[in-house]
Amino acid sequence: MAKLTPDSNLELATVATISISHIRESDDALLSRHKWDSDFSWLVAESDYFWIVWTGDSEDREVLFSYLREYGFSEDLINLVRYFNELEIHWLRLDPEGDVLEQFPIFEWG
User: How far apart are the first and last CA of the chain?
Assistant: First the structure.
């Protein structure tokens, strides 16, 4: 077992937290429906209050976007994932208390 030290070479991941109002209710329903699928669990994590969605690596982002389309996710969600992928942010936390970003649509639901 390795010991954590200041010079450890840990792989770090970044997370951006934004408002869940930036996704459609239909996207929320799809996340809920597929969260237990074994071939979907690598993409999304859930808590009682928010979703965490993987934004992909630069090498495989188009595969990820195709995968999201195949599952029926909206272009609005795919555009969010694309935006944060291009910023090299690894995970997107969709939270009711997250920041509302003016450059993205806001959907009233729930």
Answer: 46
- Among the listed residues 109, 110, 108, 53, the one whose alpha carbon sits nearest the alpha carbon of residue 85: 53
Q: Is residue 8 part of a domain?
A: no
**Are 90 and 15 in contact, with CB atoms under 8 Å apart?**
yes
Q: What is the C-alpha to C-alpha distance for residues 94 and 46, in angstroms, rounded to an integer? A: 10
The CA dihedral of 94, 96, 102, 103, to the nearest 10 degrees, is 20
**Any domain includes 103:** no
Q: Is residue 105 part of a domain?
A: no
Range of the domain at 73: 15-95
- The 10s digit of each residue's pLDDT in 35-90 is 666 666 566 766 778 888 888 887 778 888 898 898 899 999 999 999 999 999 99
Kindly report the pTM of this predicted structure: 0.83
- Number of domains comprising the chain: 1
CA atoms within 13 A on the CB side of 92: 25
